[in-house]
What does this fold into?
Amino acid sequence: MKIVLYGNPTLRVKSAEVDKVDGELRETLDEMVELMRKANGVGLAANQVDIAKRFFVLEVEGNVKKVINPEILESGEEMAEFEEGCLSIPGVFKKVTRPEKIKVKYLDENGEEKIEELTEMWSRAFQHELDHLDGVLFTDRISVLNKRLVAKKLEVLKKDYNKGKIYREDI
Ligand code: ZN
It folds into this structure.
């Protein structure tokens, strides 16, 4: 299992729902948690490891969530601005504005439905990872000025990808 880099078409795909939560999926989720930790990440979505299915893993302060078929049921009106990065877009960090609180629904690794209210890092990471499953990257959500500032870096990443640098080899 490896992390795909910016330029990989899987990062732009709207991923498919999971229809069965089984042992194979649990193994994949465990492997993703391991990889996320190695990469010092807060979240890792399935399409970042080249699997176009709707699941991701999160870790905040040592607590892990394994999230399958996630949905946002409600978003709070209050917005928060916070710097984000992405394991598939190394070297790019910019502020993104998102709802501060969300109410979410998902299946856990045992196929049990969870409904939770998330704030702070959990809310932020959940929204970032859910975007991945819809083919959206945080760089799509930054200001016009910041888009201009990161354009060159993204271009370089895309060129590297086209030259065959498909995976993060440093993790
Ligand atoms: Zn990301």
Q: What stands out?
A: The beta strands are 43-45, 55-60, 63-75, 79-84, 94-99, 102-107, 113-118. The chain has a mean pLDDT of 97.
